[in-house]
Structures are given as structure tokens and as C-alpha cells.
Amino acid sequence: MKVEIWSDVVCPFCYIGKRKFEKALEGFAHRDEVEVVWHSFQLTPDFVPIPGESLHDSLAKKKGVAPEEGRRMNEHMSGVAKEVGLNYDLDNAIPANTFLAHQLIHLGAHHGKQDATKERLMAAYYLEAQNIGDIDNLVKLGTEVGLDAAESRQALTAGTYAEAVRLDEYHAQQIGVRGVPFFVFEDKYAVSGAQQPELFAEVLEKVYDEFKPKPALTVVADSNACGPDGCEI
């Protein structure tokens, strides 16, 4: 069973939603049969960070509110994150464009380390106040999940996975994604937002029940019949 998730590395609800989905998956009896695929989505693809600008000020500017209101919104988000065990450090978080980070996640997917790469980047941004828009730092973070440093640097410098990021974003437009996180189950059911684990668990059960492999028929009686080669007498 495939679950595809569109999210951005700097979307606070995306990290929270990841934890809630993971909790539901932990309690799902058929979790070993679930393939999770992460897709790129940039909330602000044209964002250009200003050196030294805080996340509070950056958010306030984006929302068109006073800086103290930006801080208040981030403090509220930190409280929500604590409910799922995440200690956001938004006072020190470094605003970044996530285009390169998404490319590293695609490289991670190429090596079977997509979820580990996604998790490492989110933790670096939200919990450790690391710059995820810097190539040198991204290469370092990649090595921490087992990616080769030279390959990571080459891929990020050459834009090897840039088109893959754009394709994810185009696909999101085609299926009507307007906000993230956005979860798609077996191309049939969608869940928008960081919903509660109980809802994710309910959807997992429903989708598995509909799409699980059907057992082979057991023949309980066999007698005379006709086939392409004639009839048995």
C-alpha cells in the first residue's frame, strides 16, 4: 500500500503531521506493507533569505503583521509541536529557501534513505537552528544519514534533482494540493493537514481493507465441465 506525502521542510505543521502519521503507522498491523513516498512542495519557492533576519521577523513580513505578532504566532506553533514531542527552537531558526533541501531528499530516495534524509533536515531546521539552504551544511547533514559527501555536493551543485522537485510540485498542482502536509493513499483517498493519529489510523485500515491482495479461490467441488479443448466426459 502506497502513501504519498507532499510537504515542505520549513512547514511547521508538516513536521507535526509527520509525527502524527508515524504514530498511526506504528499501531497499524500491516505497517510493513506500507510504502511511504515523500514529495516536494515549496511554500515560498521565490523566498530569498536576508542574512541575520529572524524567523519571527520573516514570518511577520510574509503575513504583513508586526514583528511581535510574528513571534506570538511562532510561540503558539512551538506549543503545538510540544504536544507531539518536538521542541521547536524558532527563536534561533534560520529562514531558508528549501529548493536545495528538497533536492537532497530526492538524492536520499535514490539511495533508499528518503525518510531518514527528510527527518534529518527537519530536525536540523526546527530543533537545531541549522541552515538548510547552505550547500556545505546540506552535504554534512547528508553524510549523517549515510549519503556520500562528494555525490551530494555534485548533485546539489549541478541541480541533478531540480527537475524532480519541480515535477513533484507540478503533480501537486494537478491533483489540487493547496496546502501541506497532504497525504494521498493509493491514489484514491486524500487527507489534508496534520490530522490526529486516530484519523490516519482509520484511513490506513480502510485503504488496506479495500486494496489488500485477494486470496486465491479455494475449489470446494470439482466435476464435469467444458473448456477450450472440449468437454470432460
TrEMBL record:
InterPro entries: DSBA-like_thioredoxin_dom (IPR001853), Thioredoxin-like_sf (IPR036249). Transmembrane segments: none annotated. One of its GO terms (molecular function) is oxidoreductase activity. Residues 3-204 form the DSBA-like thioredoxin domain. Pfam families: DSBA. SUPFAM superfamilies: Thioredoxin-like (SSF52833). It comes from the Bacteria. This is Disulfide bond formation protein DsbA.
